[in-house]
Structure formats: structure tokens, C-alpha cells
Amino acid sequence: MARADSVSTTIRPIAPGDAPVVGEIITVAFSEVFQRHGFLSPFPTVEAGQRLATLYAAYSGTQGFVAERDGRIVGSAFLHVRGDRAGIGPVTVDPRAQASGAGRAIMHRLLEESQRCSSVRLVQDAFNNVSFSLYSKLGFVPRDVVPNLVAEDPRPQPVANGTEVRLMTVADLDEVAALDTRVTGLARRCDFELLLAFGSHLVCQRGGRIVGYLCRLALEDVNHLGPAAAEEPDDLKSLLYHAAQMPGARAARIGLHASQPELVQYAMDSGYAVDHLSTYMVRGDWQPPKGVCAIAQFPEAL
To answer: What's the pLDDT at 5?
Structure first.
């Protein structure tokens, strides 16, 4: 049911036919704020934004909502509930409707939809003081800093840690999901199942047991690395090394937790540089990972 959150803003669930407009707004909104602060937008083309909106609108693991003013879509946001935890993103408002209350209204709707969750997370671009203020007022607390790292041709050093690295298969899904839950506390088997249809992902084994995984999606000639989780830093380093040896595009992007400096240093020694910093914000319960991990590129903030 549609819901009016203010006099002139209505929040309703996204419909499949909304995806082209939503995708265009995602592209324009990110381009405007990133370029204003001197950064390249993560959505270089309208088609990139529309692909994401189309995928999220059809994905059973995601709830999408749009903000309308005078019958025109002016913003959108997506909620990814996994067990009793949830991630939010992306949240965008048409630059022409900024400061109209649309962003706050759509965030209130997401928080209503996720109120049974013990923890809600999002990743906020640190240069965007407007969104940081909004999320802070809504009860989100900074829990970590995320260096968003990029490399044109990463050359990580091999790691001698006694693990075997190979491609992830459907037969690995249960074990990968169980490992992910142990390390991150999340329940996202459905995401790994979907990701298998779009990319070539890796697992590392020790003694026949999976001790780490790394998802790898090639989009716009860039390898988007993450989510990833492993029991030990060397396990994730080994996965990053093998990902760099795979055929295809050389450029890569990954988001790591600054609270895991050994991994950040390994990535930077491999040729990665910081593109920009993000703030990992949490509303509700927060337990640090029981291992090491990389931020999910899909779905966001998980």
C-alpha cells in the first residue's frame, strides 16, 4: 500500500516498470555528488544505473521503494533483509528534489520495514556530509571506515599458507554460507546463489575444508571484488592473489575495513590506491567480524 510520509511525498513499493526512471536517477544523483567532490561516479552510464535498478526490482532478496512528488518519481532506496539483519542501499534522490524531505521520508519507510531486525547497516560516502547528518539523526552510528580501493593492474604477491584456491561451485553454497555466517554473522546464501549466475568466484580450502571465499563480478571492464570472508588474513590475501591471475579485465575495485589494516596494506602494496573513503554505519546491534572480510558490492552494506 502506498503511504504518504509528508504532505507532498508518497513512498510506495517499486514496480518493475519503474526501473528505467529509478536507474536514471541513481546515475544522475551519484554523478552529481561524486563529481562535485572531485570523484568519479560508481555509475558511469545511465545503463549501469538501470541495470542495478532492474536487478534489484526483480530480486526476491530485496525490497525497493520509490518516492513520488506530484506523481513523479524523485528518489528510491533498497532494503536487503537477511535473517534479523538488514542492509540499505543505494539511497538516491533526484538533485532537483534535494532538501525536499524525500530522502528522510524514504528512510523512515525502510526503517519501518526493517523494525524486526536487530541490526541495520549502510555504507555512507564520507565526503557527503548531508547524508552523514541524516543517517546520524536516524540513529545510525559509525562503526568502521571503508577505504574504497581501485587498481588498474593489481599485482599482489603470492602467499604461502597451505591453502588450495579454486572456483566456487553450486556444491559449495552451503559451506560458503556457513563460513560467511561464522565470520560476519549474516545469512546470505540466497545472494551467493544469485552471484554464481553472474561471475566467477573463488574459495580457498585447507585440509578439504573451505576457509575463505571471494566473489568477483566483471562489470564495465572492472572486476568488483566482494563480498569476501575468511578465517585468517592470509586466506583472503591468497584469494586476492588468485583473483588477479584470472583472465579478463585487469582493473579491480574492492572495499575493505580499515579496522583490518593488514589486508589494507596488502592491497596497497599490490597496486591498489584509495579512491575515496566511506563510513560503515549501523543502527542497532553490532558485532565485529570474527575473521576478515571485504564489503559486499551486491547487495550493498552487507
So the answer is: 45
- What is the tens place of the pLDDT at every residue in 50-67? 999 999 999 999 999 999
Distances (CA, A) of 250 to 144, 150, 216: 28, 11, 12
Please state, as a whole number, how many other Cβ atoms lie within 10 Å of the Cβ of residue 136: 14
Would you state the cell numbers that stand for residue 140, as one nine-digit string? 545510525
Q: Mapped to the 3 state alphabet, what secondary structure does 102-159 carry?
A: HHHHHHHHHHHHCCCCCEEEEEEECCCHHHHHHHHHCCCEEEEEEEEEEECCCCCCCC
The 10s digit of each residue's pLDDT in 20-41 is: 999 999 999 999 999 999 998 9
Q: What is the pLDDT of residues 243-271, one digit of tens each?
A: 999 998 899 999 999 999 999 999 999 99
- What is the number of other CB atoms lying within 10 angstroms of the CB of residue 207? 8
With 60 as the cut, is the pLDDT of residue 1 above it? Answer: no
Separation of alpha carbons 300 and 88, rounded Å: 7
Is the preceding omega at residue 299 within 30 degrees of 0, hence cis?
A: yes
Instruction: Give every CB contact of residue 115 below 8 A, 6+ residues apart in sequence.
Output: none
Q: 119 to each of 8, 25, 115, 175, how far by Cα in Å?
A: 30, 28, 9, 24
C-alpha cell recorded at residue 297: 558490492
Rounded to a whole number of angstroms, the CA Rg of the chain reads: 19
